[in-house]
Design brief:
The protein is of the alpha+beta class. The chain has one domain. The protein has six helices and eight strands; from the N terminus they run E-E-E-H-H-H-H-E-E-E-H-E-E-H. A hairpin with a 2-residue loop joins strand 1 and strand 2. Helix 2 packs across helix 3. The radius of gyration is 18 Å and the shape is globular. 30% of the residues are buried.
């Protein structure tokens, strides 16, 4: 694994509470909403509400909490690998064991094709939004935004529209602040049964997703700004 190639000076962006909202305090002096907040506040929640009713609130919370625990650990293994070049060993906790197997699938399927410029990179679009992406760098030689995801079950492309919007948002922010022209993004995903999936945002689709992202930004600020 090639260690991080520091092509850009990525600054840490702190979060702060403003009028009950958790915002990013950006280097330009503005406090802005996160990408994930904008997406969650403008998302069609119909299917999620129906699922919670179907399984029950308590069970739904248990599933979400467990998934978050496994996902956090999986991210940490991959983050440590990117930053040190060493493959970590899992703890004895069953969640850790599961997450390690999932991280191994991601590593084996994709990491040879990735050059990393930054890991856990804070990005912002001045005065509009901010957030953190797992990786900025190149995928098969092309500049890209990249994210690791875990899932309980394999997903279909039509279920993950917000992933494409997330990638687009971070690409736009990087381009705005660092003068790049990133028009590509990739989600590297593994399910609990160790099926690897990849969702790719290609340059010829970028304008379509950019338009959809700005629609969601305008909707958010119209209703929550």
């Amino acid at each position: 694994m090639t260690l991080i190639i520091n092509k850009f000076d990525y600054a840490e962006i702190k979060r702060k509470q403003v009028d009950g909202k958790r915002l990013y305090a950006c280097p330009d002096g503005n406090a802005v909403a996160s990408v994930t907040t904008i997406l969650s506040k403008t998302k069609d929640m119909t299917h999620l509400i129906a699922w919670k009713k179907r399984v029950g609130e308590a069970k739904a919370q248990e599933i979400v909490t467990e998934a978050a625990s496994v996902g956090t650990r999986m991210h940490k293994y991959l983050e440590d690998y990117v930053e040190t070049g060493e493959w970590p060993t899992p703890g004895s906790n069953p969640y850790a064991q599961q997450a390690h197997k999932m991280a191994t699938q991601v590593r084996d399927n994709v990491m040879e094709d990735v050059e990393v410029w930054g890991s856990e990179v804070n990005l912002y679009h001045p005065k509009i939004y901010a957030g953190t992406t797992d990786l900025v760098g190149t995928y098969k030689g092309q500049p890209a935004i990249m994210d690791f995801k875990q899932t309980n079950k394999p997903k279909k492309a039509e279920w993950v529209e917000d992933y494409y919007l997330q990638l687009t948002a971070y690409a736009l922010a990087h381009n705005e602040v660092f003068g790049t022209n990133i028009r590509e993004g990739h989600v590297f995903m593994c399910s609990r049964d160790l099926q690897y999936q990849q969702f790719d945002l290609w340059p010829d689709e970028f304008d379509k997703w950019e338009s959809k992202w700005w629609d969601r930004v305008y909707e958010y600020y119209d209703n929550h700004g």
